[in-house]
Amino acid sequence: MNADEVLVGKTDCRKSLSIPAINEHLTTKHIGRELHFADSLVSTNKTSIEKAQGGACHGTVVLAETQTGGHGRQHRLWYSPAGLNLYFSVLLRPTFSPDKAPPITLASAVATADAVEIVTGVKPTLKWPNDLLLDGKKLSGILTEISAEISADTRKISWIVLGVGLNVNTKEFPPELKTTATSLRLYTGRCHPRELLLATILERLEHWFTVLTVKGAAVVIDAWKAKPNILGEWVTIKSAGKPNSVSGLAKDLGEDGALLLETRKGVVERVISGDLVQETH
Ligand code: BTN
């Protein structure tokens, strides 16, 4: 019996991440070739942004076994126990202009869903703009942060940090998350290899990032729409900084990745960001 098994027992799937195993599975050219691993960080996005500001290269990945202040949109905390799940951030330095950036979030959701399906056979539902669900519960969340130089004669992305949290082997969530969060372990009843999942997500992300750069957003948006998703459902969106929410039928995605909502009055509204809640009717 090794130290991990003595510590926590085999049945909860808890095991330390193996960096050599990640490198063995990694097939990318750029993404993840510079990999920073820490046992514990406040937030991999925070460290990744510091590295971006310090000049780190395109494709740098920051990975942590646990986070003490991992967070999502609206500053919500991301539950980050050690030895069970994936918490990582990818630094991208795209050549496209800042107005072409929003679909990168859809591309990362497609990449994560591809990898989950390839490794486990499970097909998550995509919740616009950047969540993965199983049985209506959150399996993965993606936090996109961006810095751009915009002036009279410059429009340039300095960096994009994509922070991915994927609930892989959590067997039990704290009471406040039990009804809203799930994991691959809970859905399938099996333990899943985090190293292979990470390497596969990075490979799919490199693929979709190249597609977005070379072919443009339409191909990424078509890939998003080809997966199980929330289109066709009644939803409510609350956008940060806006007092009122907007409800309607999730009709389609626009050519820039915006959600097109048809309200009860038959008006189609374009929503570019916000928190989506599915309605039960
Ligand atoms: C959301 O649900 O709003 C997004 C959640 C993103 C969580 C991940 S965990 C790794 C990375 N580091 C963070 O602090 N957040 C992201």
3D architecture notes:
With 281 residues, the protein is of the alpha+beta class. It contains seven helices and twelve strands. The protein has helices spanning 3-8, 19-25, 44-53, 103-120, 184-188, 194-215, 217-226; strands at residues 35-41, 61-67, 86-92, 125-127, 131-134, 137-150, 155-166, 234-238, 246-253, 259-262, 268-271, 275-278. The strands form two sheets. The protein has a seven-stranded mixed β-sheet, with helices on both faces. A five-stranded antiparallel β-sheet has the order 11-10-9-8-12, with no helix packed on it. Helix 4 runs antiparallel to helix 6 (194-215), helix 4 (103-120) crosses helix 7 and helix 6 packs across helix 7 (217-226). The longest helix is centred in the C-terminal third of the chain and has 22 residues, at 194-215. It is globular. Bound molecules: biotin. Residues 43-45, 67, 70-73, 78, 87-89, 141-143, 163-165 line the site of biotin.
Compact description:
The chain is α+β, with helices and mostly antiparallel strands. The chain has seven helices and twelve strands. It has a seven-stranded mixed β-sheet with strand order 1-2-3-7-6-5-4, sandwiched between helices.
How do the helices and strands line up, and which of them pair or pack?
Blueprint: H1 3-8, H2 19-25, E1 35-41, H3 44-53, E2 61-67, E3 86-92, H4 103-120, E4 125-127, E5 131-134, E6 137-150, E7 155-166, H5 184-188, H6 194-215, H7 217-226, E8 234-238, E9 246-253, E10 259-262, E11 268-271, E12 275-278
Helix pairs in contact: 2-6, 4-6, 4-7, 6-7
The chain binds biotin.
The helix/strand class is alpha+beta
How many strands, what sense, and barrel or not for the largest sheet? 7 strands, mixed
What is the beta-strand fraction? 25-35%
Report the helical percentage: 25-40%
